Amino acid sequence: MRDQLRIGGVPESVIDDAVLILSELLSNACKHGRPLGDAPAGDGDVRAAWRVDARGRLIVEVTDGGGPTRPAPATPSVTAHGGRGLNIITALADDWGVRDDIRGEVTVWVVVHEDVRDREARHRHGDFATRVTAPVVSALPGLDFADAFDDLD
User: Where do the domains of the chain lie?
Assistant: First the structure.
């Protein structure tokens, strides 16, 4: 994937984002989706694709056999072990969405960058931390760590 995109003139920072996004999409498809087609349950067959479309947008897609729920960003607790994948994708991507087909397949598509052919194009990699940073713990109502230690005296 990386070499093909580099040859096509896609900037390294955009490729890095595309790889992370693809990883998140594949993880979600394997965890929440059914296998494609006639594959036995548990095989986890999914389809991944990427392309630069006619408008110069880098698009990454992952297709699975659908699942019990629609892909949607979650609001995990601070201590949750998962549930942040689509929030990461939202922070890195210019756009994303879900497409269903008549066979029951579900494709999550992501526009990683609007115009990858423009090497000077705006890329939001630099402000990623400000877009996905958790709230300051002291700003969370009802959370006082000092109270947790009162019983230890």
Answer: 2-119
Q: Which residues pair with 110 in a beta bridge?
A: 60, 96
Question: Please, what is the end-to-end C-alpha distance for the chain in angstroms?
Answer: 57
Domain 2-119 of CATH type 3.30.565.10: yes
pLDDT tens per residue across span 89-122: 998 899 999 999 988 899 999 999 876 655 444 4
* Amino acid present at 91: A
Sheet hosting strand 58-64, strand order edge to edge: 47-52, 58-64, 106-113, 95-100
Nearest 5 degrees, angle CA 13-CA 18-CA 19?
Answer: 100
Q: How wide is the angle at C-alpha 100 spanned by C-alphas 18 and 66, nearest 5°?
A: 80
Could you read off the pLDDT of 47-88 as tens digits, one per residue?
Answer: 999 998 888 889 999 999 998 888 888 888 888 788 888 999
